[in-house]
Amino acid sequence: MPDRGPLTDDQLRRLSVRMRQDVLRYILSAGAGHTGGSLSCVDILNVLYNRVLRVSPETFGNPDRDRYVQSKGHSVEALYVVLAHAGFFPIEQLETLCQYNSPFVGHPTRKTPGIEMNTGGLGHGLPICTGMAIGGQRSGARYRVFTLMGDGELAEGSNWEAAMAAAHYKLDNLTAIIDHNSLQITGATRDVCSNEPLDEKFAAFGWAVVSIDGHDYGQLTDALSAPAEAGKPTCVIANTTKGRGVSFMEGDVAWHHGVPSQQQYDDAIAELQAAERELEEAAL
Amino acid sequence: MSAPAPSVYSPAATAHAERLGLSLGRANLEVFAETLEELADSDPSIVAVTSDSRGSGKLKPFGQRLPDQIVEVGIAEQNLVGIAAGLAAVGRRSFAVSPACFLTARSLEQIKNDICYSDVPATVVGISAGVSYGALGSTHHSLHDYAALRAIHNLTIIAPADNYEAAEAVRLAAAHDKPVYLRFGKAKLYDLPRHGQQFEPGRATLLRDGSDVALFGIGETVIHCLLAAEMLAEDGVEARVLSMHTLRPLDADAIEEAARDCRAIVTAEEHSVHGGLGGAVAEALAERGGAPPLKIVGVPDEDTVTGSQADIFRHYGITGEGISAAAQHLLQRQEVAR
């Protein structure tokens, strides 16, 4: 079991570097995965599961637990690694990732301990979480509901149907996090079908909007620890870098679902290990 | 004032219904709304989710009496089903109510993923189904829902044939911890003779026995099968009539028995002839081998005629007259072949 005590920013930073290595290790062994988008959201998930969500393997059946639904289901490798580090299952089980009959499918399913809903088709997380948040609001439960969406995913109209309803019902127990890495499978989101200005769009729909650096632990913690405004759902636009942490993957759309060769994997791990050593030395 | 819609029952069919002593009940849609309200009154976990459809879903009284148990999402069917799934995932028994045509087409992926794949206890309620909105045209006809939903794993599909089946189906869905699709129309329905049989999901209800031809109906077409049987009896043809209220899981035993006992099978549905009850029965019969001939009565693969539900039923022979003629045709073809 990992140490479940409160972690410092430095500890979280080091943990994220290790999680990035795990993400790459299991994508390499599976021969499949969404590398770029998983690396962009590791820090967000790390903060969620280690600082924000009132959920643990022991309390997962508790109806008052906080809910997290990963709408950008293709980045499931990051979620698996974060759940494993949070103690939901032994990380070695990820050796079966994407293999025949494995519970670790290429998109989230409830076969995996810790996963609330089956996702993968885009534009589903926000409506589901809106329903969960209405349920909590109506019963007076104190749980909060979170979803993580990709910025490219916002082209799906179902998100905006839910955005309208969430504001209508004043769901301040709902937080939507946009993993704003600005890239989708075809290229830059602004070139595929621009959705900017995102902040103004969500604000116009009646949301409280916070724009942050999605790799900054302090900013993530502040944005996620409490609703931004009473009576409004919160949209956290987390500005991130696709492929974060591996210099030759960063900002390169080829890594959307690119799988590293052994050599590329070794290079990426060497870079992440160097970063880990640097962080450890700085901490001493 | 518009002219009253023509009756879906011909004078001959009405005479047969009267001779059988059947009384004209209400629309299943009304029974659905009342039953849900009655259940929700004592079970606070029940929530109706509507997409600006509480009027067409007859849920205005529900909303007035139980405002904390209704969620309005506006005209947004994908969100309707997603929200219903989210509510079900946090312990509610949600009923997503919307016209069947939009609900099962626009929200098909949400039904598939959010409800069935995630396996949450949500009920999808398709109202004004089939050609209930006949004159409004093909945009408002739901002639695809059986075909689309039948291919989705983990979904019970029920189309009640009368007010009794409708009330029982709603009670079942509210007590079931699995996904359910319920299909309701707007026409007033005769209360069918049940001979003491209970409604049991997955088990067809035998309304009349016979061994010349079997008539399988679903939803609002079952009464037409029964009236067809009366017309056939005048010609000395004994028809077996079954309400196949549960399309999934289909009652394979009832089909097997009909294939064994009868010389022909006719199915009738308010749906495309592709992929619905007839398709399901055809699959079961083909797998069995040595099956009697089958006629699928429904809406053919064409630009559907519009008009009232009665007009459309008459046009495509989804009536006592049409179904009995289909049965006679199959039986005569067999005689010629002998």
From TrEMBL, chain A:
It comes from Posidoniimonas corsicana. Keywords: Thiamine pyrophosphate. Residues 25-261 form the Transketolase N-terminal domain. This is Ferredoxin fas2. It comes from the Bacteria. Pfam families: Transketolase_N. The keyword Chloroplast does not apply. Its cofactor is thiamine diphosphate. Belongs to the transketolase family. The lineage of its organism: Bacteria, Pseudomonadati, Planctomycetota, Planctomycetia, Pirellulales.
UniProtKB/TrEMBL annotation, chain B:
SMART domains: Transket_pyr. InterPro entries: PDH/Transketolase, THDP-binding, Transketo_C/PFOR_II, Transketolase-like_Pyr-bd, Transketolase_C. Belongs to the transketolase family. Its EC number is 2.2.1.7. It comes from Posidoniimonas corsicana. It is an enzyme of class 2 (transferase). It comes from the Bacteria. GO terms for molecular function: 1-deoxy-D-xylulose-5-phosphate synthase activity. Keywords: Thiamine pyrophosphate, Transferase. The keyword Transferase applies. Gene3D superfamilies: 3.40.50.920, 3.40.50.970. Its cofactor is thiamine diphosphate. This is 1-deoxy-D-xylulose-5-phosphate synthase. Residues 26-192 form the Transketolase-like pyrimidine-binding domain.
